[in-house]
Q: What sequence folds into this?
């Protein structure tokens, strides 16, 4: 909502504050960049960080060898979320002149990420990775160029 104030209204005054009390109310140290919502979009696991809405980040780790693909979820300030925050996580690789490869992902043993295995990617520059998952029963997907992950 937008609030419009007229320039003709007198400015509100606030009583003077005790500077000692004001200093005591300040946090001991300023918040770190990662504690600020959307202040940290650096990959924590080596690949690309994306957002869904304002409160969910996810990091996709694509491995050209096909041995291990991962998807991690974090909140708005990049605090780790359990993998179970999402459901139906699937990675689909689209290569030129080949059928799409659908990789069903499973929650890893630690419960921290979704993990899956697939065929090696010989031509990352012409391969697309579709990441799909559901959050609170709401389906979501995005296509990412495989080569942007390096």
A:
């Amino acid at each position: 909502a937008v609030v419009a104030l007229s320039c003709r209204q007198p400015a509100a005054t606030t009583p003077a504050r005790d500077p000692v009390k004001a200093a005591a109310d300040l946090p001991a140290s300023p918040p770190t960049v990662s504690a600020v919502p959307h202040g940290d979009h650096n990959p924590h696991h080596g690949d690309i960080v994306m957002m869904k809405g304002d409160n969910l980040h996810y990091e996709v780790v694509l491995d050209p060898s096909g041995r291990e693909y991962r998807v991690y979820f974090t909140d708005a300030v990049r605090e780790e979320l359990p993998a179970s925050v999402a459901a139906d996580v699937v990675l689909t690789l689209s290569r030129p002149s080949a059928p799409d490869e659908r990789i069903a992902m499973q929650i890893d043993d630690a419960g921290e990420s979704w993990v899956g295995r697939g065929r090696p990617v010989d031509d990352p520059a012409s391969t697309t990775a579709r990441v799909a998952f559901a959050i609170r029963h709401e389906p979501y997907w995005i296509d990412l160029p495989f080569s942007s992950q390096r």
Observations:
- The two ends are 41 Å apart (CA to CA).
- Confidence is low (pLDDT under 50) at residues 1-34.
- DSSP finds one helix and nine strands in the chain.
